[in-house]
Amino acid sequence: MIAHDMVVLLDVDNTLLDNDQVRIRLEEDLQRVLSPEHVERFWGIYEDVRDELDFVNFPETIERFGRECTDSECVSQVSAVLYGFSFKDFVYADSMAAIDHVSSFALPVILSDGDQLFQRHKIQSAGLETAVDGNVLVYVHKELELADIKKRFPAAHYAMVDDKPRIHVGMKGAMGAQMTTVMVCQGKYAHDPAHHEFPGADITIEGIGGLLALTAGELRNAASGSVEG
Q1: What's the confidence (pLDDT) of residue 1?
Q2: By the 8 A CB rule, do 187 and 207 touch?
Q3: What's the CA gap between 172 and 164, in Å, rounded?
Q4: The pLDDT of residue 127 is above 90
Q5: Whole-model pTM?
Q6: Which residues pair with 7 in a beta bridge?
Q7: How many domains does one find in the chain?
Q8: What's the mean per-residue pLDDT of the chain?
Q9: Do residues 155 and 196 share a domain?
Q10: Do 96 and 198 share a structural domain?
């Protein structure tokens, strides 16, 4: 059953939320409560976990860091920094307006990669969960979960707003003309020519505010067949 005419899937990190600046601020906050050696080791474990699991997993990073840190206060200090962080301060200025605009002609759904605990906390803390009326999906690799996405939010057409090429390739490869891919060139990719000219995107916008200029018809009509990255 087709429940919606269009569903717009919205990425979080560096699409709705300035995750590059979040990382910088988290580094500063951790430096205030941990020794330089502990800060360095925490981020080392963070990278090890990401390489091993192929996605960012803060709960696992904290768990492993706690097993290595001999100071009993380390884990509580790190947890306080991470779970007390004000993610709302790092939502891009146009994100809420973009969600409101999309809501006028489609169902906005947040579709994010990450762990089921911290990533969901981030989305909720940032006020993004409320903005999309609780329609939030988090997967390890979202481009591999299209069957579940379509089951949960059936629609005649989908649009994916994301800053990562592999997502556009995966989504378009699986759905073809039923999917419009929108590349967002902001964050660390703001000035990357490879992103601005990426052939796997049906539409390229300079930032999330670019959604404000797009209509339902433009999103739908921009979709072409399957593409190669």
Answers
A1: 55
A2: no
A3: 13
A4: yes
A5: 0.91
A6: 107, 158
A7: 2
A8: 90
A9: yes
A10: yes
